[in-house]
Amino acid sequence: MQQTIENIRSKALEAIKNALTTDNIEEIRVEFLSRKSELNNIKKNLKDLSNEEKRIIGPLANKVTTEIETQLNEKYQELYQKELNEKLEKEQIDVTLPGSYLPYGKTHLLTQTINEISEIFEGMGFSLVKNENSPEVETEYFNFDMLNIPADHPARDVQDTFYTTVAPNVILRSQTSGAQIHEMLTSKPPIRVIAPGRVYRNESVSARKNNLFHQIEGLLVDKDITFADLKGVMNEFIRIYFGSARPTRFRNSFFPFTEPSAEIDVQCIMCNGKGCRVCSGSGWLEILGAGMVDPNVLRNVGIDPEVYSGFAFGMGVERLAMLKWAVDDIRLFFNNDVRFLKQF
Ligand code: DAH
Q1: Do 30 and 121 belong to one domain?
Q2: Residues 92-110 as b or e (16 or more Cβ within 10 Å = b)
Q3: Could you tell me the pTM of the whole model?
Q4: What is the C-alpha to C-alpha distance for residues 43 and 32, in angstroms, rounded to an integer?
């Protein structure tokens, strides 16, 4: 019996010595120390031995068990460290290697421009109109009639306006000015809003014209509003958008929904007024239309023109972006060529 235990001991220690992995150690542990192991069997059957044998075999079996356990644990630690080191070595990260570059998205130049202009006006106390006050699919009533544009006005010509098949008077809006009407019908003065959005015109496409483009409409209605207020707000907008106080010029003009009306020019940003190809030699660039809200329009929406006055303005977003960034073809905004888009 002593010999058997001795044999188990040397077999176990030999196996431990030759173990190569922590998994091996666990196998050896099962083989020599589990409940079904030979050594455990001997301990279980001690009761069948003579008293004298018990006194020798019992302690010996315990001693060998402890020894195997100790050896197993030591070897396990050693192998565990070795495996861990190997793993760390293999999974080492070289932080000096160049990373892999993923293409990243950007905001489209048009959206950037709309956001920038909106923020300028928000800084002056304007807020964005609600979406429902600025629909792209419009009726002639809001796009024209209420804005004092009579049925025989050339702007209503089918040449310019996209009609739909929904109903004879349902169109794609040709200007954002209809948002003025929606706003004035749903809120009371003081009103200070801007309405950016898409507009559609049935024109032939060229470097300067696309039949879809964007405008930003502005409207302010309150007591005692004068042309001087319009001038101040427009000059401040131009100063911030173009980055410095540029000379501006208010040219007499006509829009059916404003009286008086003006077109506002800014000194050519390419040639500083000397005259170049961009400004067709004039030294000036037209950037927006504006004016005092026509009393007829105020009456149309139930606002008393004897009590209230206001101004409105409208600008082309593509045009403003083209002037600021020297973009020479409006179609570049819509082709979505990344070589163009990623420059901004
Ligand atoms: N809606 C005009 C256009 O599309 C632009 C415009 C001019 C808007 C004068 C205005 C304004 O609000 O007062 O040409």
Answers
A1: no
A2: eeeeeeeeeeeeeeeeebb
A3: 0.72
A4: 13
Residues 62 and 177 in one domain: no
Q: Which residue puts its alpha carbon closest to atom 8 of ligand 1? A: 314
For 288-342, how does the pLDDT look when each residue is reduced to its tens digit (9 = 90+)? Answer: 999 999 999 999 999 999 999 999 999 999 999 998 998 989 999 999 999 999 9
The atom of ligand 1 lying closest to the CA of 314 is: 8
| Residues sharing a CB contact under 8 Å with residue 282, sequence separation 6 or more, in sequence order | 268, 275
Q: Specify if 234 maps to a domain.
A: yes
Nearest to 204 by CA among 171, 160, 157: 160
Q: Does 129 share its domain with 212?
A: yes
Cβ atoms of residues 138 and 200 within 8 Å: no
CA nearest ligand 1 atom 2, residue: 314
Provide the pLDDT confidence category of residue 99 given band limits of 50, 70 and 90: confident
Give the number of domains in the chain: 2
pLDDT tier at 120, thresholds 50, 70, 90: very high
Residue 224: CATH number of its domain: 3.30.930.10
Following DSSP, what letter does each residue of 213-280 receive, concatenated? Answer: EEEEEEEEEETT--HHHHHHHHHHHHHHHHSS---EEEEEEEETTEEEEEEEEEE-TTTTTS--TTTT
Ligand 1 environment, Cβ below 6 A: 175, 177, 217, 255, 258, 289-291, 312-314
Mean pLDDT of the chain: 93
286: amino acid identity, one letter = E
Tell me whether residue 102 is in a domain: no
| More confident site: 275 or 181 | 181
- Starting from the edge strand earliest in sequence, which strands make up the sheet with 248-255, in order? 127-128, 191-200, 212-222, 309-316, 284-293, 258-267, 248-255
Range of the domain at 123: 109-341
Q: Kindly state the percentage of the chain with pLDDT values over 70.
A: 99
Give the tens place of pLDDT for each residue, 196-212.
999 999 989 988 889 99
Answer yes or no: is pLDDT of 255 > 80: yes
Q: List the residue whose alpha carbon is closest to atom 5 of ligand 1.
A: 314
Atom of ligand 1 at shortest range from CA of 199: 4
